[in-house]
Specification:
Blueprint: E1 7-12, H1 34-43, E2 49-53, E3 65-67, H2 75-83, E4 90-95, H3 103-111, E5 119-125, E6 128-136, H4 141-149, H5 155-160, E7 164-167, H6 181-188
Parallel strand pairs: 1-2, 1-4, 2-3, 5-7
Antiparallel strand pairs: 4-6, 5-6
Helix pairs in contact: 2-4
Length: 190
Amino acid sequence: MKPIPPLWGLVLAGGQSSRMGQDKAWLNYHDMPQWQHVQHLLQDVCECVYISRNPTQRFIDSPSVVMDQYAELGPMGGLISALGTNSEVAWLTIAVDMPFLTKETIRHLAGNRNPQSRATAYRLAENQIEPLVTVYEPSSFSAIRVLFEKKELSLQKFLAASDVAFLSPPQPSELISVDTPEAYRYWKKP
């Protein structure tokens, strides 16, 4: 039997934040920048945690930063950049714009991970897969690279067409993405 690849974490913080109008990595929901909060969530279940940032972004003070060389190409670009760090591990990705995720939801995903599948992901409904709170196994990386080279950049479409272990999220409301100023003001209310 093949050994189970180690689980590493990736905070997807390198986006352009164009809809938000300010860097979502630095928004504060939990008395710290959001990138740091997500890093703490991942440290609970991952051997190593990296932060994916783009070259024009404000400096992130962490020894484990992956420079997203493809920031304009979305989350798949961040994952491809991380694979340059290590493609022998499984990567648990978390988008920085999901401020309601808890350790329990992350533990549930990591604890029910199926290393025999290409990925383990949350499915909210038949056609609604969450690609940015997902464990991507090393067996998925060659297929993701092929799609990336073809400029087919949807991780959600990759998951829908692949051998993936789907889970129901313990608290679906935790998978809300906050990516506009209006949503930020609404959810940041005391």
